[in-house]
């Protein structure tokens, strides 16, 4: 497995965890701004997964 694929899968797993957190908060009537934050984070990390797959230089801090 190339480094790009591995890094991409890692980002997708981070995104999945943020989405799962948002779903858990929704189910428990959590704070809307915290739910929105986790949704935004999931989108950002999914986009980083896409970039990581196509470009190998995506840092975890950007």
Keywords:
62 residues, mainly alpha, 2 helices
Give an overview of the whole structure.
The structure is a single chain. The chain has 2 helices and no strands. With 62 residues, the protein is an all-alpha fold. The chain has one domain (3-54). Helix 1 (3-27) packs antiparallel against helix 2 (32-54).
Question: Can you describe this structure in just a few lines?
Answer:
The protein is mostly helical and 62 residues long.
- Secondary structural class: mainly alpha
Number of strands: 0
Oligomer: single chain
Profile the largest sheet.
Answer: none
Mean pLDDT: 90
Shape: elongated
Secondary-structure blueprint of this entry?
Layout: H1 3-27, H2 32-54
